[in-house]
Design goal:
260 residues; alpha+beta; OB fold (Dihydrolipoamide Acetyltransferase, E2P); five-stranded mixed barrel; 13 strands; 20% helix
Amino acid sequence: MPWNRIMTNTKEDEFFVGYLPTAPPLMGARMRKVSVLLLAVALVSSAIFAWAFRELPAANFEFGIERTFVGTVVESPYPALFVRRPGTTQDLPSYSRYHLVNTGKFGAADAVRGWEGRVAALEGTLIFREGETMIELTAGSLREADGEVIHEGAEQSLGEHTLRGEIVDSKCFLGVMNPGNLKPHRACAARCISGGIPPVLCVRDKSGTAIYLLLVDVDGTAVNDAVLGFVAEPIEITGEVIRIGDQLALHADPTSYRPL
């Protein structure tokens, strides 16, 4: 092979030598083009991701902060604590309803058994979102307390309605997980509801405002195990909407739920 052929850099005989200060001309040109292209792709992708990012909802879990609550315990359909509101409540009910759950993926039914209608003090951690509040009960903190027994207000029927929304587990949705809904959260929600966490139907109007309805059977009893097959899926439920205080409940037979 002629000597000048050996010394000529051509497309066919270029190769990279790591210890040389520069790459061969043609190879270097290609790498510069590829680098510019990759940089452009990275910038465009970053802009798309920033544009598509959704701000997480204002759901809160005061992890590590324990508060003391005093109120009247209710066992059914799901454990709750009625706490007297201070001062003038105007159009609001005279008490707040805080649903009670245990640590982890468990409801508080066992913890409050036998406490129906009794005044108790307890320690717990607040979970709250858009006016809905829950307490994660500190194990072993429930105890007798002095105070006024709060009686639940009269039920007000708002009639029969057909509602479309998503069944969520109230504990994660209100703040323990964020956003805590839709299919990515389905397995977790099913475990929470099967463990006794109150199931809630989340319905949104055209403006995106959320309405939360506690799901119960036609007789007002808990429906945890009966709704597991419908969790985190679009669903339509027809039933009677009942208001008690500031709580809305949807009374419907789970066998009548209709997936969309």
